[in-house]
Structure formats: C-alpha cells, structure tokens
Amino acid sequence: MAQHESTYVPKSATARWWDERLPLMRLLHDSFVDYPTPRNLNYLWTFGGILSFCLVAQILTGIVLAMHYQPSAAEAFNSVEHIRRNVNYGWMIRNFHAVGASMFFIAVYIHIFRGLYYGSYKAPREILWILGVLIFLVMMATAFMGYALPWGQMSFWGVTVITNLFSSLDGIFPGLGTAIVEWLWGGYAVTGTTLNRFFSLHYLLPFVIAGLVVLHVWALHVAGQNNPTGLDIKTKSDSVPMHPYATSKDLLWMFIFLIMFAWFVFFLPDYLGHADNYIEANPLVTPPHIVPEWYFLPFYAILRAIPDKLGGVIAMFAAIAILVFIPWLDTSRVRSTKYRPIYKWFFWLFAFSCLALGYLGSKPAEGVYVFWARIFTFYYFAHFLLVMPIVGILETPKKLPRSITDAVLGGKGDGSGGAAKPKGAAAAPESR
C-alpha cells in the first residue's frame, strides 16, 4: 500500500530542483492527493481529518491564551476573566479553546468506536491502533491538566481528588504513591506551584500529541486504510485517489461538524462546563458533588464502582490499557462487525454500557448508581476479556464479498476492473 507508484510531476524548473534535493511536495502529493483510498469509505472515516483540525485549532488558540494567562493561585481565575472581557476577541478564543476540548473528545470517541466496529485494530494495523490509544491517553492527561487552569472550585477540587488517587500505590510500592503526589503538587498540598506545573505540562503535551499523530498517519499509510467491508485493496478498481474523492467527503462533514462547533462557541460556550467552576477556588469550601469534565465520566464511574481505593485506580487505568491488547483479544477471522451477526449485538451492548457509565459517573457515588456502575463496569471488561475471544471462535460470519468493488457494485464486478462476476464463484476468504 505504501509502495504505490508516484505520479507527482514537478511543474517548473524550481520545483524539479527542489524535488531532487528534498521531495517534500512529492511526499505530500503521494500521501494526501494520489494515495489509493478504498472506494467504499463512509462518512465515519471523515473524523480522522476532523481530529487533525481540532488538534491544530487547540494548539493555535492555546498559544494565544498562554500569552495572557497568569499561572498563579492569586491571578489565574482573574486572568481568565481578563481574557474574556478585555483582550481583543479573547472571549471567542477562550470559548473556541474550551468548547474545542469537548469537540475534540466527541470526534475521538466516534473515531474509536468506528475502529472497534469495523475491526481497524486487526493485522496489519496493530501498531496504528496502539499509537491511537497512546494519543488518547496523552489527550486525557492534557485535558485534565487544562481543566485545572481556570482555578475554579471544580478545577481545584478535581485536581485534589484525582492526584490523591496516586497515593493508593503505597499499598503496592511503599512511598512511591506519596512521592508521585508530592511531585505533582510541588509540595504537600494543591497550591499555585501545582497550577504552574500543570500549565507547563498542558502547554507541552499538545506538541507530543502532534508528534504521535505524525507517527499515526505514517503507520496508516504503511498499512493502508481499513474500510466497511474489512477487505484489503486487491485491484486498482477497489480504490480511488484520495483527492478529490475522500477529501471532498472530509470537507463536507467537517463543514457540518463546524456548524455544531460554532453553535456551542457563540451561543452555549459554558453549557458543557460545570457551574461551580465559575466560582474562584477555595481550599476551605468543598463542593457538594465533585465531578470531572463529561469526557472523563465513564472512567470516573469505573473508579468509584470499585469499593477499594487501590482497586478503583487499577480498574480506571486498566480500562484504557486494555485497549492496547484488543488486536490479540479478538479471535474473529473477519474484521468488520457488519458481517458478524452475533458479535454485533454485543458491540451495541458495549456502546450502551459506555454511555451508561458516562451517565453514572455524573451521579453521586451512592445507592443504585453504584450498583449499576458495577454492573456496567463488569461488562466493560467482560466485553474484551470474554466476549471478543469466545464469540470470535464460536461465531459463523456472514458471507463476505469477493472484493471492495463487489461490495460497492452489489456483486456486479469481479474486483478486476468491473467485469461480470462468474456464476457460482465463491467469496474469497478474508485475511486478517
């Protein structure tokens, strides 16, 4: 897939001179213009481009905000208000950055579930998937540290509660948990020093994400894109050039996504936040119900579902770490859930469980909420550790089309240029 023949032709003597010494334009052309793209991609594949846009937008708006932000306990809260009220277009830049975090996670969750549904983690895309999980993990760390920066009540107490969880590691490695907490705090309590450390890391980590994204795209172009059938590109008729076919789809859906983005930025900028975070941090007043941002809620519910503190921390991090091993936990010989009649029901049950955990994470850790959080936490892990291995062995998949072309043309092509399909031809087996 990565070795397709280059069609780039320099248009001028300068372009030819440059191409002989640093073929950057050839690389861009081969990777993003003439790159062979499966002809049956649906609009769920547009979220890769949307995520790239979100990352660039977050970095650019973050750089501008950093020019005016004061990372100190005395000035942080007021500096955010100063940005919103006194900096030219500061209200828009701040709204764009705050809402952008939520839009980023909406897009990444859709991107992850698309990969799970269509088996984009299967060979030869294991490294591609693992890099995606690493990006997700660094995104969560970046967002958590960013949530501390407004220095409101929920910011302060969220940092206090979550960082304190590391102290539970003392039960395994005596002294290690406390050392981690004190390093994060920069002392023995959450103070302005903590805020300054989080600001530094929040500024740095997006560039780490950008580096991981470059590796992610590189791995994608080596292994090739997956598609709704899960079949590999076998002939030229199975693919189309990325531009204008895939790029036009990306631009259309990005435009629709930006409409929703703009709606929140201009009309509901504070809707996805918490009201208590518009009260300046006060170490002497604890909010009645401490909750993180909505995109952390499923993992927060898993944390609280375990009665033991150390067990809860392990379960919360294991909920992310287990994603790395999915390529080896799924034993099915086909990629796409579209052709898996039994597993499809379990997949939608898993999706419902994640939504339920998100809802339960926003509720107090008491009564029926804890009971259901434990039920859905059990299924979250059972889906990967039991359902994927067992169903993959026992299930009989539906008959696969012989090629991507056959899937698009409804069996009217043979995958070798659109010729008629011979009678009695059997579907070609799919390789993992």
In short:
A ubiquinone binds at residue 221. With 432 residues, this protein is mainly alpha-helical.
Q: Strand-and-helix sequence, N→C?
A: HHEHHHHHHHEHHHHHHH
> CATH-wise, what's the superfamily?
Cytochrome Bc1 Complex, Chain C
Q: What is the typical, i.e. mean, pLDDT?
A: 92
Q: What is the number of E strands?
A: 2
What is the name of the CATH architecture?
Up-down Bundle
Indicate the overall shape. globular
CATH class: Mainly Alpha
Strand content: under 5%
Transmembrane segments: 43-68, 89-112, 127-149, 156-181, 201-220, 251-268, 310-330, 342-360, 372-394
Membrane topology: Multi-pass membrane protein
Cofactor: heme b; heme
InterPro entries: Cyt_b/b6_C, Cyt_b/b6_C_sf, Cyt_b/b6_N, Cytb/b6-like_sf, Cytochrome_b, Cytochrome_b_C_euk/bac, Cytochrome_b_N_euk/bac, Di-haem_cyt_TM
How would you describe what is shown here?
This protein is mainly α and 432 residues long. It has a single domain (36-409), classed as Cytochrome Bc1 Complex, Chain C. 60% of the residues lie in helices and 1% in strands. The chain is built from 16 helices and two strands. It has helices at residues 13-21, 24-32, 47-66, 76-85, 90-118, 126-148, 153-164, 176-185, 192-223, 242-267, 297-305, 309-321, 326-329, 343-361, 367-394, 404-409; strands at residues 36-38, 239-241. Strands 1-2 form a two-stranded antiparallel sheet. Helix 4 packs across helix 5 and helix 5 (90-118) packs across helix 10.
